[in-house]
Write a structure and sequence with these properties.
707 residues, 5-stranded mixed beta sheet, 23 helices, elongated, alpha+beta, single chain
Amino acid sequence: MFALGALGLCLAYLLYCLATIPYNGGLVVEPTASALLIQAENDKTFATRGVFKGDKLAASDLPPDLVHAIIAIEDRRFYDHNGIDLKGLTRAIVRNASGGSAREGGSTITQQLVRMLYLSQERTLKRKTQEAMLAIWLEAHLSKEEILTTYLNTAYFGAGVYGADAAAKRYFGKPAKELTLSESAMLAGLVRAPSQLAPHRNLNGAQGRAALVLEAMAETGAITREQADEATAHPAVLRIPDDTPAGANYFVDLVSSDAKRLIGAGPSDAVARTTLDLNLQNLAESVVARRVDGEGAAKGVSQAALIALAPDGAILAMLGGRDYNESQFNRTIQAKRQAGSLFKLFVYLTALRNGARPDSMMIDRPTQIGEWEPENYGGRYRGPVTLRTAFANSINTVAAQLGEAVGIPAVIETAKGLGIQSDLPNVPSLALGSAEVTLLELTRAYAAIAFDAEKIDAYTIRSITSRDQTLYTRPQTPLPPQRNAAARAGMLELLSSVMREGTGKRARVSGFVGGKTGTTQENRDAWFIGFTQEMIAGVWVGNDDNTPTKNVTGGDLPASIWRDFMIQAGRMRTNSGQSVAIPRDRRGTTMTMGAAPIANDATALRGAANVIDTATLELNGRTIRLLGVEGTNSSRAIRDFERVLRHREIECTPSGEAGAYRCRLQGKDLSELVLFNGGGRAGPDATADLLAAEEQARSARVGIWRR
C-alpha cells in the first residue's frame, strides 16, 4: 500500500513537472548590433565594433575536430545514450572528484541543449526532472547530428558570442570550418565556463582548459597521443584585430555611425573597407602629441584636432582630441567654434565672383558698420593695399568692408554652397568669422576650392560586404567643377600668398601649397587649413572650456602642426601609393646608443627585450643592433626607451646588414621610432624611410635636434 502511494506521488510529481515546463525559457540573447570589421585603406582590419553573429552551421559544415572535442570533454557516450546517461554521470563525478576540478561534464549534450532552449539555469529537483524529460523527448524527435548541430549553433562561448562560427570569427578571425585542432579544443573548453575562460580576458586559463580537452580526445581515441602532445605544445592564440590605434577610435566611431546609416543594423557580420590610412593616422597622433606635449602647457593649449582629406573627400586621418580614453568627444565633427579669419575665404570668394581681382585695391583704415567697429590684429592700419596683401596678412578692416560691399547674405550663400551646414547669422561680424562651425565643415569648404569642385562631401567608407555579398559601394562619380573658374583661380592665388608672404609662412613647405590661418577673440581658438596638390589638412587648437590661450594664433602652433604633418605625409604617400610606417610615440623621447658586442646570427627573434642602450637590445640572450641608428649617451634616454618597450614582445628580423635588425613593437618600427623622436642620428646603413624620419625630427627640432 505504501509502495503504491509512493508510486502515485512520483507519477503525480512527474505530471506536475511535465505540465509546468517553461517552454519560453532558455538562453536570453540580448539584442546587439552585428559585428562590423573595419579595414583601413590597405585592407588591414584594425578595429571591430558590435558582436559577432556568425553563420548557422549545417551538419555537413561541422569541423570534425570540434565535434570530437565537444563530445570528448562534455559527453563521451553521446552516441550511445537516449538523452540521459547515468553511467557517464557517475564517471564524471569520480573523475572530477579525483582531479579536484571540473574536468568532464556530467550532463549530456542533449540535456545542455534542453537547458539552452527551454529551461532556466536554476539548480532545483524540478528543473533537473524537466531537463531529463525534455532530453528524452528531444532524442526521440531529432537525430544525433541535428542535436549536435543545434548545440554548436546555440552554445555561448563568451565575449557576447553565441554559436561556434561566431566564436571562431571573434577569437581566431576565421570561419568555424577552418579551425585547427588546438583552436577547436579551446572552443570546446569554453562552454563549461565561457565568462571565466573567455580567451580575450583569460588566455592562460583558456589554453589550460584546452589542454584538458586534448587529453580527453586522446583518451577517447579521437586523436593520437602525438597529435595531442603537438597541439598542447602549440596552443591556440588569438587572431583578432590589433588594438585600435588610440586616436583612430574617433574615426571608428564615425565609421560605425556611417555604416548604420548606409545599411541599417545589419542582419549579419559585415566588413567595412574604409578610407583611413593607418600610417597617416599614426603620424597625426605623433605630431599632435609631440607639439601639444612640448608647447601646449606654456601656450595655454590643452586640446587639438586634425583631419586630412584626399581630393575626393576621403578621410585619410582624423584625430578628434588628445586622448580618446579621457574624452570621446570628437572635436573635428562635434565641436562648434568660432571660425575667425578662416571665414574670410567666403567673403573674398564672393567678391572675386562679383568681379574683384587679387590686385584690386582697398583701404585699410578704421571702419565702422553700424555700431560695429572691427579692429586689426596689433591695432595698425596700412592704407591702400591689394586684396592679395589684405588676405595674406588677414587684415580685418578690409574683410569687413568687403562683406558690407557684397552683402552678408551673399557671403552666407557662398559658404552654404561650399558645404557649411552650421547656422550663419546675418550680421556684419560674420565677415570676421563670428559664426561657430566645425573643423570638418571648414576643411571641406577649403577642399572644394583647392581641388576644383563645386562641393566636396567627406566620407569614411568605400564599401561594405557581408558573406561575399556587397551591401554598399561608394559611387565613383566625377565632382562638378567650380562654376566660376576665374574666381577660383584668384582665390588660389590669395591662398598661396598666405604661405609665401603672409600669416602662414611658418607652414610653408616645398611645392604648390595654399592655406589660411584663423584666430578668434582673446586667442580662444587657433586654426590652420592648408593643402598641397594631393591632400588637404585642417588643424584646430584651444581648450574645451573655451578659456583663452596664451596669445596662440593660427600661424603659430596650428601652422607648425600642419607643416610637421604635411612634410612627412608627402614622403609617405608616394606616387606608387605605398606608405612608410611611422612610429606612434606620444612623448618625443630622446634615445641613445653605446658600445656592445653585436650578434651576427641571421635568425628572426621574438620576445621581451632588455635595453643596453637605445640602439642596442638584448633579446633571447643575444645582443642585436637596430638598423640605421647611431645613438647618443644619456641615462634618461635609456629609461625613456625602457618605458616605450615596457617588457612587451617585439619581433626582430635580420636586415641584410651584418648584425643589424629591423625590430617592431605592435607594428611600430623601433629604428624609425628612435630617429623620428630625435633619439639619434641616421647611420651609414639607414634606409630611405629612416632618413626621412631623421629629417622630420630635424624640422621639428626634437630630441638631439632641439636647440
